[in-house]
Amino acid sequence: MKEQQAKSDERDNRRVFVWGVLAAIIVMLGALAYVYAVQRHFEAPLEMPPPQGTPTETPGAAPGK
């Protein structure tokens, strides 16, 4: 009886260990997804350069003329 109980306990321990490892992996993936989402949310927007059209003032001209 004790040998059968030992095998059952060993199987239960292995099952609990596997579930614990799976839970740890899921928690880590969730934490990484959270950090990624927060980083994307607070990331500074890229500044777009002004469009390459005709300038409002010609370079070298006196202001106001």
Keyword list:
65 residues, mainly alpha, rod-shaped
The structural class is mainly alpha
Strand fraction equals under 5%
How large is the radius of gyration?
Answer: 32 Å
Q: What are the segments in which pLDDT stays under 50 over at least 5 consecutive residues?
A: none
Order of helices and strands: H
Dominant shape: rod-shaped
Count of DSSP H/I helices: 1
Residue share in helix? 55-70%
What value does the average pLDDT take?
82
Number of strands: 0
Query: What distance lies between the first and last C-alpha atoms, to the nearest angstrom?
Result: 104 Å
Main sheet makeup: none
Give a concise summary:
This protein is mainly α and about 60 residues long. The termini are far apart. It is rod-shaped and about 105 Å long.
What does this structure look like?
The chain is mainly α and 65 residues long. It has a domain at 1-42. The protein contains one helix and no strands. It is rod-shaped. The model has no long low-confidence stretch (mean pLDDT 82).
Question: Could you outline the blueprint of secondary structure elements for this entry?
Answer:
Layout: H1 2-42
